[in-house]
């Protein structure tokens, strides 16, 4: 069974969930709203997408987990940002609330993107109005964040703990819109747990060992530590464990055409196996909690 809010999100697996394991893909949306009104080349703008990531993780549902995916593009409004992460100088008019821009907004990739990857050119020929930004938050950003939180809360209420994997992809090398020097090569995977504060260490280590054993290069918290969805939902002291997985796009697609490459099937099989591996980890953790 799949719950869908057209153009906004889908939730897969709630009816077949057998353990408190939740995956989400906030950046794989490809349905561009009619009111986007951007000035960028559409194909170039697609570099912002984590194209195909939700499909790559689809096997998690068969492992007894829930999978939430966004349908809207992150460049329109980014579900993995705080609702106040935007520079007021980028908005025309008075925004209804305090804004607290982070380095992401400074790079043009805050709540509503203002620059186009990978070169960092302007996304608009004008500033977004305060009403436009508020509308995007109300219609897309808030429903996604609140639905994810509801799924996590429901799992926590049923089992007493919950494990959350936030799924992303990254460019093969750092772009002009990165905190790294442009052209810096990325490993196959980057795992982020906000320097060990967002989940029990065994979760990150279980993923690292699984991927390393299959010959992949894996970094932890460098350069990605996890953003808003990890920060907001990771609270290991209360049995809420969140981590982020970034996969290098070279492993599964052509970054120019966005088409799957020859490695797509193997990576999807790997992710299905990883989801099964994590279901075992979660089951073991639940037994440990019960024994205590």
At the fourth CATH level, what is the homologous superfamily? Answer: Zn-dependent exopeptidases
Total strand count, please? Answer: 12
What is the 3D form?
globular
How much helicity do the residues have?
25-40%
Structural class of the secondary elements? alpha/beta
Query: Roughly what fraction of the amino acids lie in strands?
Result: 15-25%
Q: Please compute the radius of gyration using only Cα atoms.
A: 18 Å
| CATH-level-2 architecture | 3-Layer(aba) Sandwich
CATH T-level topology: Aminopeptidase
> What separation lies between the terminal Cα atoms?
35 Å
- What does the largest sheet look like? 8 strands, mixed
Q: What spatial order of strands do you see in the largest sheet?
A: 1-2-4-3-9-12-10-11
Average pLDDT rating: 96
**How many structural domains does the protein architecture include?**
1
């Amino acid at each position: 069974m799949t719950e869908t809010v057209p153009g906004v999100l889908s939730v897969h697996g709630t009816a077949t969930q057998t353990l408190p394991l939740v995956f989400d893909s906030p950046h794989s949306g490809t349905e561009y709203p009619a009111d986007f009104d951007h000035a960028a080349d559409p194909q170039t703008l697609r570099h912002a997408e984590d194209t195909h990531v939700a499909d790559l993780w689809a096997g998690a549902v068969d492992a007894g987990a829930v999978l939430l995916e966004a349908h809207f593009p992150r460049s329109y409004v980014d579900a993995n940002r705080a609702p106040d992460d935007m520079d007021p100088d980028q908005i025309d008019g008075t925004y209804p609330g305090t804004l607290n821009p982070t380095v992401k907004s400074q790079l043009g990739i805050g709540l509503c993107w203002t620059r186009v990857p990978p070169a960092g050119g302007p996304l608009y020929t004008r500033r977004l109005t305060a009403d436009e930004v508020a509308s995007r938050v109300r219609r897309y950003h808030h429903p996604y964040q609140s639905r994810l939180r509801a799924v996590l809360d429901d799992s926590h209420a049923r089992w007493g703990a919950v494990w959350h994997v936030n799924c992303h992809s990254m460019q093969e090398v750092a772009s002009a819109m990165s905190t790294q020097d442009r052209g810096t090569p990325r490993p196959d995977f980057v795992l982020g747990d906000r320097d060990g504060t967002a989940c029990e260490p065994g979760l990150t280590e279980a993923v690292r060992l699984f991927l390393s054993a299959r010959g992949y290069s894996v970094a932890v918290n460098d350069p990605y530590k996890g953003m808003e969805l990890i920060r907001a939902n990771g609270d290991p002291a209360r049995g809420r464990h969140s981590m982020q997985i970034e996969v290098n796009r070279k492993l599964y697609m052509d970054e120019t055409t966005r088409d799957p490459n020859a490695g797509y099937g193997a990576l999807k099989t790997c992710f299905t196996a990883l989801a099964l591996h994590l279901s075992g980890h979660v089951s073991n953790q639940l037994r440990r909690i019960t024994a205590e």
